[in-house]
Design brief:
Blueprint: E1 2-4, E2 7-13, H1 15-33, E3 39-44, H2 48-56, E4 63-73, E5 76-85, E6 95-103, H3 107-118, E7 123-131, E8 144-148, E9 154-155, E10 171-174, E11 180-185, H4 192-203, E12 206-209, H5 210-219, H6 223-233, H7 240-253, E13 259-263, H8 269-281, E14 288-293, H9 296-310, H10 318-341, E15 345-349, H11 354-366
Parallel strand pairs: 3-4, 3-6, 6-7, 7-8, 11-13, 11-14, 12-13, 14-15
Antiparallel strand pairs: 1-2, 2-10, 4-5, 9-10
This protein binds guanosine-5'-monophosphate (5GP) and magnesium ion.
Guanosine-5'-monophosphate (5GP) binds near residues 46 and 72.
């Protein structure tokens, strides 16, 4: 995570991904302009790095020029494009390749189009490293695109937030500052699934159940799923690093929402630390471990009751049930200590009606948000 002025940004596009975009655009421009002695027209300030990379890769003769335009303030476009530094030599009759860092609404492109037409260029093409199709409102074609990105505000690799961040070698995006991440615990029969579903809707959180994530990856034969399955087929435990990578992919995929409910993870202190580290990279953290607390005898009674109708064999046998509850306490005792030390443990009385328990959970979570 990086902080620029008052805002926090999280890693979004790696140097390697940026390079793929650069190579793609450079190859297309080489193919189209190799013997046409183009004038590369970089649009300052943002495009200085991209322009350098593209121009370095150009194989034929070329000239280089820059214009400076501005339409942005803070994290929003002003709609008006100003020319702060105009052309210093005529482009009449020339083949021009405009090099932009990012095309957002297209206002900047429109004013460039006016400038180039009044210059009476022979032809011009537009190259941009980043393009936000969801935000683009013009009909001018964009000839070379490094990569399409969603409508997030990004910084790095030439792009700034109020002057800062242009020197970052990768791209970051503005962090959603009000994320709430909850680790939800509860012994079998405590009603965790029911409550997770209610909380998820109420707070607009994404429910990440490790079990579901595993099943999804294995079923769809993702790289991680295949790795995990190889361990499981040998009867071995899937290493934490694979589980964490699956969760990372899941978290990174969900750009909407106010945070996550983690269910079934972490199970060990090592996993809790890995989760902490990963969320920190994303500019966020675990806000609370919330555990539903229900007396053993009530759990046994509930599960035996459920076993009568659910057909789950592990719900039918009292000894098996008691063993599962015991394992739960053995496993989570250490995590309870881990989160207690950080003042993040909330034990919630899980006996009562669904609504009563939800109300207790909300009371705890409302303190966090
Ligand atoms: P447009 O005129 O296409 O709306 O926007 C073009 C200019 O807006 C870009 O040259 C850039 O200066 C700025 N801009 C648009 N989107 C972003 C963004 O996500 N991050 C940053 N830092 N600047 C942006
Ligand atoms: Mg620009």
């Amino acid at each position: 995570m990086v902080q620029l002025h008052d805002l926090k940004f999280t890693p979004f596009i790696s140097e390697a991904e940026i390079n793929v975009g650069i190579e793609k655009v450079a190859a297309q421009i080489n193919a189209d302009f190799e013997n046409k002695t183009p004038v590369f027209l970089g649009v300052l300030n943002g495009a200085f790095l991209f322009a350098a990379e593209v121009i370095k890769r150009f194989k034929g003769d070329c000239e280089v020029n820059f214009v400076k335009l501005s339409s942005y303030e803070g994290t929003g476009t002003t709609g008006k494009v100003e020319s702060l530094m105009g052309l210093t030599s005529s482009l009449k009759g020339r083949n021009v390749v405009v090099i932009e860092d990012i095309v957002d609404t297209g206002n900047t492109l429109e004013s460039l189009d006016r400038i180039l037409k009044s210059e009476e260029v022979n032809l011009y093409k537009i190259a941009t490293l980043f393009y936000k199709p969801a935000s683009y409102k013009k009909s001018l074609p964009i000839d070379y695109v490094g990569m399409e990105i969603p409508n997030d505000f990004i910084v790095g690799y030439g792009l700034d937030y109020d002057g800062l961040g242009r020197n970052l070698t990768q791209v970051y995006k503005l962090k959603n500052s009000k994320m709430t991440n909850i680790v939800l615990f509860g012994p079998p029969g405590a009603g965790k699934g029911t409550q997770a579903a209610v909380l998820k809707d109420h707070y607009n959180l994404k429910h990440i159940s490790t079990g579901d994530v595993f099943r999804y990856n294995i079923k769809n034969e993702t790289e991680l799923g295949k790795l995990a399955k190889a361990y499981m087929d040998k009867g071995q435990l899937v290493p934490d690093s694979i589980t964490i990578d699956m969760l990372k992919a899941e978290v990174r995929q969900s750009t909407e929402g106010n945070g996550f409910i983690f269910d079934g993870f972490p199970r060990t202190v090592a996993q809790a630390e890995a989760l902490e580290e990963f969320l920190q990279e994303e500019g966020t953290q675990v806000n609370a471990m919330i555990a539903l607390e229900v007396d053993d005898e009530i759990l046994v009674e509930r599960l035996l009751e459920r076993g009568k109708t659910s057909g789950r064999p592990d719900d039918a046998n009292e000894l098996v049930i008691r063993k599962r509850i015991k394992v739960y306490y053995e496993e989570t005792a250490i995590l309870k200590q881990f989160y207690l030390k950080q003042d993040k443990y909330f034990g919630i009385n899980g006996v009562g009606s669904i609504q009563e328990i939800t109300a207790r959970l909300k009371e705890a979570i409302d303190q966090l948000v």
